[in-house]
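Hey team,

Filing this mostly as a record. A colleague (T.K.) asked me to run one chain through the structure pipeline before their review meeting, and I want the input and output archived in the tracker in case anyone asks later how it was produced. No errors, nothing strange. Just documentation.

Input sequence:
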Amino acid sequence: MDRNHALAAFAALSQPTRLDVFRLLLRAGVNGMAAGEIADALDVKQNTMSANLAVLHQAGLVRNQREGRSIRYFADLDGTRGLLGFLMEDCCGGNPDLCQPVISSIACAS
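Output structure:
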């Protein structure tokens, strides 16, 4: 990920509803959630939710899949890894052992 993509991702996440959506989709995992389910879960109007999902999609933080008349959204784990990788790229002065506690704290438990 380059600097401009990272800035777009941070800009997308700097709005409270979009941050809530992103965290909700991370929790939803591989099943994702339909746009209407996301709007209901966060008590946000569907047209407002649609605009927020578009911003997150443009920033590479969510992906979508059409299911008939509905669209299901998922956290884009490649985009998330790219953002985290960008942040950690120069971490710890080249000593990866110092970064391990940070990596362990954000990794999913097996």
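Quick notes for T.K.: The two ends are 27 Å apart (CA to CA). The chain has one domain: 3-106.
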